[in-house]
Amino acid sequence: MSDKILIVDDEAEIADLIEVYLNSEDYTVFKFYSAKEALECINTTELDLAILDIMLPEIDGFTLCQKIRAKYTYPVIMLTAKDGEMDQVKGLTLGADDYITKPFRPLELIARVKSQLRRYKKYNPAHSEDEQDLLTHSGLVMKPDTYECFLNEKPLTLTPTEFSILRILLENKGRVISAEELFHQIWKDEYYSKSNNTITVHIRHLREKMNDTLSKPKYIKTIWGVGYKIEG
């Protein structure tokens, strides 16, 4: 069964182009030019990934992302303007997993889609087949085989990217992992630059969900100029 991907972009040419490339990879595409039209699909269709433009009429991409995250954990990729760095940060903070700036190369978007789906399938209970050991640290319990995470016995709702970052840090307890290494492990063959703040935003979002602090971290510790670690 092919993966189901939602596209929401009011620029018909862009939405249509993305659809063509996704169809060529045998994905099932649900395409809409406004968030209002897309809402019914989101609520009635079992989707695997969403591609959302930020600048949408009536309901913007940020709001649509929030509505998705209120119920679902599948990956969300935001489409942003070339100079919209604050939009990128806001989108990641609201639960998006990745962003790509316009204009973009369609093949780069397809690579991002494949990367997100690989990770989602690997750690989503509906797709996971191989059981793995629990990952634990000071009241934090992660079950990679069932894509579950608990903090002090309470469920911790994480996006696929947040889950991946936390899993990598737990698997490497005591070792410092650089932002670049995290980026490459998560996005595989994607390009990384020091100006890329994707990992930083996701780490911040993780800390907020875990009630952790930068100054006195109980879980994720920042090693300035080097990376991040969870103490062994």
| H and E order | EHEHEHEHEHEEEEHHHEE
Give the amount of beta strand, in percent: 15-25%
* Oligomer category: single chain
Low-confidence stretches: 127-132
Structural class: alpha/beta
The helicity comes to 25-40%
Main beta sheet strand tally, sense and closure: 5 strands, parallel
Q: What's the overall geometry?
A: globular
What does the radius of gyration come to?
17 Å
State mean pLDDT (0 to 100 scale): 87
How many helical stretches? 8
Spatial sequence of strands, sheet with the most strands: 2-1-3-4-5
Total DSSP E strands = 11
Distance between the termini: 41 Å
Written account of the structure:
Helix content is 40%, strand content 19%. The chain contains eight helices and eleven strands. It has a five-stranded parallel β-sheet with strand order 2-1-3-4-5, sandwiched between helices. It has a four-stranded antiparallel β-sheet with strand order 6-7-8-9, with helices on one face. A hairpin with a 2-residue loop joins β8 and β9. The N and C termini lie far apart (41 Å).
